[in-house]
Design brief:
The protein has 272 residues and is α+β, with helices and mostly antiparallel strands. The chain is built from seven helices and 14 strands. The protein folds into two domains: 143 residues, Fructose-1,6-Bisphosphatase, Chain A, domain 1; 112 residues, 3-Layer(aba) Sandwich (D-Maltodextrin-Binding Protein, domain 2). Helices cover 29% and strands 27% of the residues. The strands form three sheets. A seven-stranded mixed β-sheet has the order 3-4-5-6-7-8-9, sandwiched between helices. A five-stranded mixed β-sheet has the order 11-10-12-14-13, sandwiched between helices. Strands 1-2 form a two-stranded antiparallel sheet. Helix 1 runs antiparallel to helix 2 and helix 6 packs parallel to helix 7.
Length: 272
């Protein structure tokens, strides 16, 4: 396990930004698209970025394993011996990339003892980078200027602001929520960028009903943890990392603060 230092963090930020520049070049042209076995798209940009990140992180920490969304056929029997490893999504928001919404990012996380301890979310077209490290805090880098992200209180005199991926998803989410609260939905692209809306205080939470992988949530988890936020599945249990054969996350909520009665917003009859 590498020692958590600002030097290591800056190296990882630089690698994520380099990968973002490669994605930017792919973004200027049409790319070939294939459909993976799980029925999700993958492009030549995903694969190039995965190879680039793997090479750079291997050079940075030669003895640390790397788990990429595009190279994840590693059985638990082999992975469970990993005390620490890099977890990467070389292009979070592939469909957004294909649809040219600009809402995609590069994700790099360092996981130690099944918990994310360092994370970088870099959105190359939107022009900002979020990063966090255990005990260091959470920051947003925009136009070369770092800004520390602060704790957000959730006001009780306005609707609860929820990040979702689409209008259809908003209706699915609304169907599991208590009618005792008012809600305002904000639609945004990739999973990680919805979590940054929570980090920025634009949204109070991000509720995900649908498929994500551990690589989609790890960086967001340490980002929000360093701000006093919370991440849990809809049974109020933490997400897990490298503890199951599958990498698929359960449905979950990412919230701006632990100091909110999150269990009150869900319909009470869902667990009956």
């Amino acid at each position: 396990m590498p020692i958590l230092t600002t030097h290591l963090l800056q190296d990882v930020i630089h690698i994520a930004q380099q990968a973002g520049e490669h994605l930017r070049r792919f973004y200027q042209h049409s790319v070939s698209v294939q459909i993976k076995a799980d029925n999700t798209p993958v492009t030549e940009a995903d694969l190039f970025s995965s190879q680039f990140l793997t090479e750079k992180l291997t050079a940075l920490t030669p003895h640390l394993p790397i788990l990429s969304e595009e190279n994840c056929n590693i059985p638990l029997a082999k992975r469970q011996a990993w005390a620490s490893y890099w977890l990467i999504d070389p292009l979070d928001g592939t469909q957004q990339f294909i649809n040219r919404t600009d809402q995609f990012s590069v994700l790099i996380s360092l996981v130690k003892n099944h918990q994310p301890v360092l994370g970088v979310i870099h959105a190359p077209i939107l022009g900002y980078t979020y990063y966090a490290m255990k005990g260091f805090g959470a920051y947003k880098l925009q136009e070369g200027k770092p800004c520390k992200l602060a704790f957000h209180h959730i006001a009780s005199d306005r609707p609860l602001r929820i990040a979702v991926g689409s209008a259809a998803t908003a209706e699915k989410v609304r169907s599991i929520l208590s009618p005792n609260f008012d809600y305002a939905f904000h639609i945004c692209g990739s999973s990680s960028l919805k979590s940054t809306l929570v980090a920025d205080g634009v949204c109070d939470c991000y509720i995900r009903l649908g498929r994500t992988g551990e690589w989609d949530t790890a960086a967001a988890e340490i980002l929000l943890a360093e701000m006093g936020g919370v991440v849990f599945d809809l049974n109020y249990q933490p997400l897990t990392y490298n503890q199951r054969e599958s990498f698929v996350n359960p449905n979950f909520l990412m919230g701006a603060t632990r100091d909110f009665p999150w269990d009150n917003i869900f319909r009470s009859d869902l667990s009956e």
